[in-house]
Structures are given as C-alpha cells and as structure tokens.
Amino acid sequence: MIKLVKSIAILVVIFLAILFIIFVINQTGQAVRLAGEVHPLLSRITLFALLALYAAVIIIPLAAFFSRPTALIPPQDNSGEANVKYLQRLAKRLKRNPALENITVDPAEPASIKEALATLDRIAETRVKDAASNIFILTAISQYGALDAIIVLLTQLRMIWQVAGVYNQRPNLRELSYLYSNVFATAFLATRIENLELLEDQLEPVIASIMGSSLSSLTPTFNNVANIITNSVIQGSANAFLTLRVGVITLEYCSSLVKPEKNTLRRIAAARATTLLAKVLSESTYKVTRAILRATAKTGKRPFIFGQNLINKTTHRTREAGRLTLQKSEQLARDISEAVKRSSHRLKNTFGKPETEEDN
Length: 360
Hints:
The protein is built from eleven helices and no strands. The protein is mostly helical. It is globular and about 80 Å long.
C-alpha cells in the first residue's frame, strides 16, 4: 500500500513538473517576442537574462543542499563504527545547544548523551502539548471542516519545525527533508487507522458521561448547550490526538540513538499521545466550554436588552437575568473542567490498556 502511494505521488510530481516547465518555456517565448518588437538586440538580452535567472534559481539551491553536511541519521543498531561516529557528531551538536549549558556531554559516555536528550525531550514535549492545546481549542470552537484541516496541517508543520529546533538550532535542508518525510510517512501512511476508531468508540462515551454527570441538574436549555460542548470537545480531541501523535513521532526521530522502526514507533506514539491527551483535555476543556457558554449567554441576553430599551428602562430584571446567566455559565465551565480533570485517569486507562493478540 505504501509503495503504491509513493509511486502515485512520484507520478503526480513528475506530471506537475512537466506542466511547470511547459508554462515557463511558453512565458519565456512571449517575453522574448515582446522584447524583440522593441529592438532585436533587446530580445537577445532578455533571453540570456532569463536563462541566467533560471540557472541561478536551480543551481544555488542545489549547491546549498549538497554543500551542507550530510543529515545526522541514527545507525541501524547501537554497536559498530557507525554508532561511534554518530555519537561523536551528536555530542558535538549537543555541546552547542544553549539549553544544555549545565550538562556535560561526552561522546565516550552514552549516559551523558541520554541525559542531555532527556532534557531536550521535556522541552520538546512542552512544545508538542502547546500545539495540541491550540489545535484542540481552535477546532473545537471553529467546527468548520475545511478551515480546521488547514489549521491542523499548518500547526503540525510548524510544530515539527519547532521540535527540530529544540534538538538542532540550525537544521539543514537534508535533515528537514529526512524528518518531514519520515514523520508524515509514519503518521499518515498506515495500513490501519485503529487510533481513529479508538477515538470514536471509546473517547466519545467517556467525555459524554463526564459532561452528562456534570450537567444533569441543569435546565433543558443548558442540556442542549451541553450537547454542543460534548460534540465540540470530541472533535477537538480527535484533532489534538492526531497532532500529539505527529509530535511524539517527531520527538522520537530527533532523540533516538538508533533508527526507529516505523510500525513500532507508531504504536509508541499512540500510547504516549493518549497520556498527553488527558493532560491537554484537563487544561483546555475549561476554555472551550467557557467560550461556548459565554456566547450562549450573550445571545440570550441581547433580546432582553432590546426590550428593555423599548419600555424606557422600566425594569432591570432582564439585565440581572443576563448577568446571572453569564455567571452560571462561567461556574458551569469550571465544573466541567474539574470533572474532566477528575476523570483524566479514565482516558489513560481507556487508551493505555495493553493490546490484545488480535491487534497484533
């Protein structure tokens, strides 16, 4: 399946490249003819100038690409001469990292390298959680499919760049190409999408039960709002989980001392992402529920304010009702957030349970 997708992608790239070359040749011919109408010599100058420009556009990036050092790719195993050279290059890079000023890195002592990488792992994990939290909030509130897809993709691309910058402050084009290609191949070119099914079948009932138990004593109006909040949280959770999985895969590729195996890495990423997802939910659910409830309260408050102006401010009950609704909404958001925090261990137990033999 993966080979077929790669073959199709290569054919599409070749086809687009041919179309682009034809377009450039056509536009160049038109520019040369237009210059020739002014003066024959100007047409030759235009032609040579455009050819020089095209050559520079092609040669300069290629020269920069091949002049940079080869990508720092982990060896297949942790023994042999290749592993020694890799540790030496990695230690040299880690010594230049400003986040490791208080850590001594010695290529002859793998323990010091692992300690340095563990420190960077914690920093990178914070970046991943921040990106997933932003995705959770934006997509939970937005609820607009096409826009959400663009937001998720751009955020993940930016997150990969940030994580790479934690381990290597100046990653070259070769390393970025290696990282982006392997991360997206591992994350998206999977033969099974068991993680999405897990989200749909198990995450939704857990969140729904949390929301239901928190809102069971409220009026029917707020129960309708609770359904909106539940759907928003589930949608945001799915996008946050996918972002966390991509982030964990990126982190593993950057910190691994041996070349990761894609299938194993995918499972590790899924397990670790579920643990981080519980933290993201406990920290960000309050913001989503508060935004939705405040919008609902303001929507119900506007007609009363309009009516109050029509009767020349004969009563302040509507304003007090609107203010009370807003206060109850904020309290409700806090209750929901606390309920999610108390139930975060449910998510860990649900997602972190060991795989059965059938899954293998």
